[in-house]
C-alpha cells in the first residue's frame, strides 16, 4: 500500500513510550491545527492496545479541549479505569506542550446473544450515481463554490460523495438532513481494530456541517467560526471501512452558537453498523475580513 492511505495507517501506528503511554504524530500537510478525527482515532488506538483483542470497543465519548499543534507530537496516556467480567473501560488524555488538548473514555464489550433491531437505511442514490469530486473539478466545478469543491476534491485517505450536493448550489433553508457516502480510499488490512480506527477518523468529517443545513449556510462560509467540541461514537455491528458506508446525518438543535448533529452509519447492504453524535461551535464571526 502506498500514498495517503498508507500515511494514515502510519500515523495510527502509535509509538509506545512506556506502559500505557503512546506517542502519535500528524501528517505534514500544512493544516493550522490537528484534525479532530485524527486525535479521536489515535486515542482509540492507544486505548485498544491495552485491551485484549477478544473484547472490541463498543462506544467512545470525547471532548476536544484545545486545538492541536500539527508540528508537535501528541502524547496519549491511558488510564485503566475498569477490567470487569463483561466490560472494560479506559480513559485517554492527549497532551501537547504540557497541557491536555483532548480527553476520551472508551468502553469495550465482547459480543453476546440478545434481542436485536435497527432502523432502516434511508432511500438515497448509491455512490456510483453521484459525481466524484475530482470529476467535478475536471467538469469545471459544476457551479459548486470553490471552498466546498476544494474540501471534497482534496486528496485524502477517506473518499467522500455527498448526496444533497445541491445545498451548496442553492443557499436556502431546508430540512436539517445531510447524507454522505464514505469509504477508505484503498483496501485496508483485515484487522477489525484498523477499520474501527479509520471509521473513528472519518466520523469527524462533515458532521458539524449538518447543523447549518436548516439555515442555508455551511461551515465553509467565511462568516462562520466552527470547531468540534465533543464527539461520541457507538459501534453496533462489524463493518469494513474500505466498503461504502452511508453517513446519514441530521441536526435536531442549534442555539447559543452551538450546533448538535447526530448520524446513523449504514453499510452498503443496509446494516446499521455505528452511530455518532457531536456538538460543535458554529459562531458567527464578528470580523470576516
Description:
InterPro entries: Acyl-CoA_hotdog, Acyl_CoA_thio, HotDog_dom_sf, TesB_ACOT8-like_N, TesB_C. Keywords: Hydrolase. Residues 25-108 form the Acyl-CoA thioesterase-like N-terminal HotDog domain. Residues 152-281 form the Acyl-CoA thioesterase 2 C-terminal domain. The chain is 17% helix and 37% strand. It has 289 residues and is an alpha+beta fold. The chain has two domains: 1-110, Thiol Ester Dehydrase, Chain A, CATH 3.10.129.10; 129-289, Hotdog Thioesterase (Thiol Ester Dehydrase, Chain A). Helix 2 packs antiparallel against helix 5 (192-202). The protein starts with a helix and ends in a 5-residue tail after the last strand. The model has no long low-confidence stretch (mean pLDDT 92).
Concise description?
The protein is of the alpha+beta class. It has helices spanning 3-12, 36-48, 133-138, 146-153, 192-202, and strands at residues 15-18, 21-24, 57-64, 74-83, 87-96, 99-109, 158-162, 177-184, 224-235, 245-255, 258-267, 272-284.
Amino acid at each position: 500500500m502506498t500514498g495517503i492511505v498508507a500515511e494514515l495507517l502510519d500515523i495510527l501506528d502509535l509509538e509506545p513510550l512506556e506502559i500505557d503511554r503512546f506517542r502519535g504524530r500528524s501528517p505534514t500537510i500544512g493544516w493550522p491545527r490537528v484534525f479532530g478525527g485524527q486525535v479521536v482515532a489515535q486515542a482509540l488506538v492507544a486505548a485498544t492496545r491495552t485491551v485484549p483483542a477478544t473484547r472490541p470497543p463498543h462506544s467512545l465519548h470525547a471532548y476536544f479541549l484545545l486545538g492541536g499543534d500539527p508540528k508537535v507530537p501528541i502524547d496519549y496516556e491511558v488510564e485503566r479505569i475498569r477490567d470487569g467480567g463483561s466490560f472494560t473501560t479506559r480513559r485517554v488524555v492527549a497532551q501537547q506542550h504540557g497541557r491536555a488538548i483532548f480527553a476520551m473514555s472508551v468502553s469495550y464489550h465482547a459480543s453476546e446473544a440478545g434481542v436485536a433491531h435497527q432502523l432502516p437505511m434511508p432511500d438515497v442514490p448509491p455512490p456510483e450515481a453521484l459525481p466524484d469530486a475530482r470529476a467535478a473539478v475536471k467538469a469545471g466545478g459544476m457551479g459548486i463554490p470553490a471552498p466546498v469543491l476544494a474540501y471534497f476534491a482534496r486528496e485524502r485517505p477517506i473518499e467522500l460523495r455527498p448526496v444533497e450536493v445541491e445545498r451548496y448550489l442553492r443557499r436556502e433553508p431546508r430540512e436539517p438532513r445531510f447524507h454522505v457516502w464514505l469509504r477508505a480510499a484503498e483496501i485496508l488490512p483485515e484487522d477489525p481494530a484498523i477499520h474501527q480506527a479509520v471509521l473513528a477518523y472519518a466520523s469527524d468529517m462533515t458532521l458539524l456541517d449538518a447543523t447549518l443545513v436548516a439555515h442555508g449556510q455551511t461551515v465553509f462560509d467565511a462568516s462562520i467560526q466552527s470547531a468540534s467540541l465533543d464527539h461520541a461514537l457507538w459501534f453496533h455491528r462489524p463493518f469494513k471501512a474500505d466498503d461504502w458506508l452511508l453517513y446519514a446525518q441530521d441536526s435536531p438543535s442549534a442555539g447559543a452558537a452551538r450546533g448538535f448533529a447526530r448520524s446513523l452509519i449504514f453499510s452498503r447492504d443496509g446494516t446499521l453498523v455505528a452511530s455518532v453524535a457531536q456538538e460543535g461551535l458554529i459562531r458567527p464571526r464578528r470580523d470576516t475580513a
